[in-house]
Amino acid sequence: MADYDFSSLNSSDLEEMVCDLINAQEKFKNTGIKLRTFKDGKDKGIDLLFASSSNPYEIVGQVKHYYKSSIEELLRNLKKDEVLKAINLKPGMYIFAPSLDLSAQSADELVKVFYPFLSKYRFFYSAFL
Fold first, then answer.
1. Strands 59-64 and 48-50: what pairing?
2. Alpha carbon of 24 to those of 33, 34, 54: distances in Å?
3. pLDDT in tens, 61-103
4. 96-129 pLDDT, tens per residue?
5. Is 127 among the domain residues?
6. What pTM was computed for the model?
7. What is the CATH number of the domain that holds 87?
8. Are 95 and 122 within 8 A, CB to CB?
9. What pLDDT, on a 0 to 100 scale, did the predictor assign at position 33?
10. Which residue in 12, 44, 91, 109 has the fewest CB atoms around it within 10 Å?
């Protein structure tokens, strides 16, 4: 398999790519779910969103472009800023997509940080980045 490197993507491009991948998967599964992205800027912790009639934050996705950064740096940022945003939104489903190469242990740490919003089944691991 080819070894692709998406390090040249900016944060917006990464969000669009992750959104496109998830939407392609949902279309294949015929769920009727279509996530959308937003322009750059303050985002209340929402990079990807699917709203339903019963929940304006049915599915919330957060994409973090931490290519070549440490897991400690990512965890520090998440604990400082992103967890509180997730708590305030009360999403039905939370998707987290980092552009950081993760071990099984660091993936488990991310799940713990976002508990109960993130589980191993709601974790979009973008290992290809």
1. antiparallel
2. 10, 9, 24
3. 999 888 778 899 999 999 998 889 988 998 888 888 888 878 8
4. 888 887 888 888 888 888 888 776 545 554 433 3
5. no
6. 0.85
7. 3.40.1350
8. yes
9. 93
10. 44
Give 93's Cβ-side CA count (13 Å radius).
Answer: 15
Provide the domain limits for residue 22.
Answer: 11-113
69 lies in some domain: yes
Q: How far apart are CA 51 and CA 46, in angstroms?
A: 12
Q: How many domains does the chain have?
A: 1
Greatest alpha-carbon pair distance for the chain in Å reads 43
* 118: in domain: no
The number of angstroms, rounded, from the C-alpha of 96 to the middle of its chain's C-alpha atoms is 3
Q: Which residue has the tokens 């976002």?
A: 114
**CA separation for the pair 27, 37 (Å, rounded):** 17
Q: Which residues pair with 93 in a beta bridge?
A: 59
